[in-house]
Amino acid sequence: MYQQSYWIHSLNDSNRNRIMGHSNPFVFQMLLGTFAVILEIPFSLSYSFSS
User: Fold this and answer.
1) CA 5 – CA 7 distance, rounded (Å)
2) How buried is residue 9: exposed, middle or buried, by Cβ count under 10 Å (0-12/13-18/19+)?
3) Known InterPro entries for this protein (predicted)?
4) Given this model, what pLDDT does residue 20 score?
5) How many percent of the chain have pLDDT more than 70?
6) Is 0.90 surpassed by the pTM of this model?
7) Is the dihedral of CA 42, 47, 50, 51 positive or negative?
8) pLDDT at res. 35
9) Contact present, 28 and 21 (Cβ < 8 Å)
10) CA-based angle 13:29:36, to the nearest 5?
11) Does pLDDT of 32 surpass 90?
12) How far is it, in rounded angstroms, from Cα 48 to Cα 30?
């Protein structure tokens, strides 16, 4: 009984870490790409208006 409970808790912890991005580099890469696009928008708008 104790071993089964231990495995359930460890699976829940690993799923939580994966969802939060601690063990999934793809999520981190997507967040970084989104942040880069958001930062790039004002610069591209100012460049198009200055031309």
Assistant:
1) 5
2) exposed
3) Maturase_MatK_N (IPR024942)
4) 52
5) 53
6) no
7) negative
8) 92
9) yes
10) 135
11) yes
12) 26
Alpha-carbon span 19 to 27, nearest angstrom: 8
Q: Assess contact for 23 and 14: CB atoms under 8 A.
A: yes
**H helical segments located in the chain:** 2-20, 25-50
Tokens 């989104």, residue located: 34
Locate 46 and state its tokens: 């100012």
**What span, in angstroms and rounded, lies between the C-alpha atoms of 19 and 12?**
11
**How high is the pLDDT of residue 21?**
46
Tokens of 1: 């009984």
CA 8 to the chain's CA centroid = 24
